[in-house]
Amino acid sequence: MFKKYKKELSFNNQFWLFLLIFLLLWINSVQAQESTSLNIITKKLSKIHTKLGTPKSGEWLSIHDESGQTFIEYKRCRPRLPTAQRKIIYIQPLGHFTSSQKKIIKATAEFMGYYFNLPVIIKKALPLSIIPKKARRQHPSWGMKQILTTYVLHNVLYPKLPDDAAVYIALTASDLWPGKDWNFVFGQASLKKRVGVFSLYRNGNPGKSEADFLLCLQRTLKTCTHETGHMFSMKHCTAYECNLCGSNSREESDKRPLWMCPECLAKVCWATKASPIKRFKKLISFCEANGLGKEVEFYNNSIKIISHGNIEKNKN
Known about the structure:
By secondary structure, the chain is an alpha/beta fold. The protein has helices at residues 2-45, 60-63, 71-76, 99-116, 149-157, 210-231, 250-255, 262-272, 276-289, 293-308; strands at 88-94, 120-122, 136-138, 145-148, 165-172, 175-177, 187-189, 195-199.
């Protein structure tokens, strides 16, 4: 009887082992098919994206020697990704905001959800008083008050990182600086700790006019999506005019698009399991509702390229 039981146990072990091997092979096959599909889409979309030219003096790539990152290189680097457990983007307001700035934060949260195919939750605001004197300064030449990004990242956000957070982002109306030898930054993120902090300070006054609101919204969307890309291990883009390009000034940042290049799009779709066309449709809906006409046109053209391989000309 014992021998019979031993044989049955051995058979059961073999069955589960074979089942596990089958599942692993099936998962690898599905992932390979997804990557192949994204590679095809990348090639199609390259038709409507502009290659990055030679940087001008003072621009990011004229100062920083960066090699960029292809979709293939991204997959090989073991990137920090959303998981079944960590799948929520948390936005943490920090300090006081005007009513117009609060609208910017709400719209940004909605856009982030479509951009990264993840749910977004805005947490209750934290007071700026939690930032100690040692993590504040008055800019030595320009005079504005600033808070230290590294303190926010490591002392405010990381200890409070929710267990289900894909990323935990602080948004503040205060100006930021990252430490010695820096004047300011629009935002800063950790590539490993899932935390980031971004500022509205240099994005304009959204309460001044409709045009100023739209400009502030565009700038905030660019910064938040750019830095969140970093939190998912995406490096600066050096191949195309892309949201993931580095910027050394307000002027340089403003001329970068809100959309991602084909390589970076493939990364974010692979990382968040997003369908490119479904993602574009959601972004189009948001952009139409918020007056982002250039983005609507570009995302529509992207869908046409993926679906048909060319852009249909408008008939008069």
